[in-house]
Amino acid sequence: MSRFGRERDAPRAESKDFRARPRNGLARRQFAPGSGPLAGNDFNGLLTDEKYRRNAWQLSGSVTLGNHEVKLGGSYDLENPNRTSWYNQGEAIFPSYSPDGGTVLGVWHQYLAAYPLNCKQLWDGRQGDFGPVPWYDCATFQPASAVRSDFRTRNASAFVQDTWRPLSNLTIKAGLRYDFQEFVHTNGDVVLELTDQWSPRLSVAWDFGGKGRTKLFASYGRYYQAIPLQFQALMMSNEYRIFAWNLSPGPDLVGLGGAVNFGVYVTEGLKGSYQDEVSAGAEAQLGSSWSVGVRGTYRSRGRALEDRCDRYWPSQGIYDLFPPDNYQTCALVNPGEGGRWGEFRDPADPRCFADYPTNEVPIPCETVRANRYYRGVEVAVQHRPSKDLYLQASYVYSKLVGNFEGAVSSYPSGTYQ
To answer: Among candidates 327, 371, 323, 324, which has minimal Cα distance to 346?
Structure first.
């Protein structure tokens, strides 16, 4: 999924939960100079073994009633992915060196926690089995050598379409489609259901010359977007990644704490993402081997379904919306809808960002919805000089504007803009 708008580059502000604490148990592995996989070419990143299984069933049929042809159908998909993750050397360790490169100033640790979460050591040094305490109270979570996630997605759809020919040179099609998605977590809980996804469709084609050589046409349709499998894994897996900063190589010095990164928080009242499309044009055959056509297309984003990962940005003011025992750093929202969850300042309005991060209090700006508008005109010419040769030339003039990149991000995986 892409990111809605762009947040200005700024360091994350320190909050009350990110304060200096005693070094006891700050990271799972104690750093000592000259030991551990700290340098060289050893790969100690995250590895995954993923398997995706999909079973799909479809059924459709049609019946002719006079000058009407009615078609009905439906489909059901059951997706059963599973994913096993592990760090190649148990954890990923990245050292921070002094400017001259001769001294290790601190170490960044990443490791996987066992599910369900079990805190093994609190910040005050007490050790035991404390269970899923808030991440800012826990110095060390019980690690896992590997984590397996099995989750399910159910997709169902149904449609009806009527093709009506009131005249020999006039065809009208009207239809309605319904889509449903259900997402089931590894623990069996339903984390999200997308319902009320109704998609009307209408098209008209008229042979105004009456001899099958001309056509005027127009159509309208609404199209819902299914959530991609990779993003589903963020909602439904039990993969907790622990990030811990050890800002000193010695056990008696002061360091800065850690955090938990675990998928996305699914907010209440979410609705599916869709776009509307209108198209119209004309085609005509000229002579026996030439034809020309022109088509205009307009697309608009009606609603977006996006993840926002600005939980710890003071300027956004959404930290208190997360439940106290929640570990996610991101939330799934409908930009511009859903109350404070969907509040976004217009990324194209410089007044909304003029004083950030100098002033952590956002300038009053009206929230905006995700919008994306495409307008295009295409002119096409076809020529068949012989039965074995076909030539086509076309020219498209289009314009795309908006504050939302769309369903597919152009940025490489793992980058944030």
So the answer is: 371
The SS3 of residue 190 is: strand
Task: Evaluate whether residue 417 is within a structural domain.
Answer: no
Question: Which burial class, exposed, middle or buried, applies to 396 when counting CB atoms under 10 A from its CB (0-12, 13-18, 19+)?
Answer: exposed
Enumerate helices (H) and strands (E) in the chain, giving the number of each.
1, 24
Longest dimension (CA), the chain: 91
- Write down the residue that tokens 């055959």 correspond to: 285
Model confidence at 361, pLDDT cuts 50, 70, 90, reads low
Closest to 112 measured CA to CA, from 230, 328, 260, 264: 260
Structure tokens given for 349: 């309005």
CB atoms within 10 A of CB 394: 11
Residue 389 is assigned to a structural domain of this protein: yes
- For residue 406, the model assigns a pLDDT of 72
Domain assignment present for residue 8? The answer is no
User: How far is the C-alpha of 284 from the C-alpha of 142, rounded, in Å?
Assistant: 71
Q: How far is CA 38 from the centre of its chain?
A: 33
pTM above 0.90, yes or no: no
Query: 303, 271 in Cβ contact below 8 A?
Result: yes
| φ, ψ (nearest 5 deg) of residue 69 | -120, 115
Q: How many domains does the chain have?
A: 1
**Domain interval for residue 376:** 21-402
DSSP 231: H
β-pair partners for 296: 280, 377
Residue 288 has pLDDT above 50, yes or no: yes
Structure confidence at residue 67 (pLDDT): 93
Tokens of 79: 């997706």
Q: At 280, which amino acid appears?
A: A
Q: For 320, left (φ over 0), alpha (ψ -120 to 50), or beta?
A: alpha
d(CA 278, CA 203): 10
Q: How many CB atoms lie within 10 A of CB 67?
A: 12
Band (410; pLDDT cuts 50, 70, 90) = low
Residue 91 · residue 109 · CB < 8 Å: yes
108, 91, 112: which is closest to 244 by C-alpha? 108
Nearest of 342, 324, 155 to residue 232 by alpha carbon: 155
Residue 288 falls inside a structural domain: yes
CB 298 within 8 A of CB 281: no
- Summarised one tens digit per residue, pLDDT across range 90-126 is 777 777 777 777 777 777 778 888 888 888 888 787 8
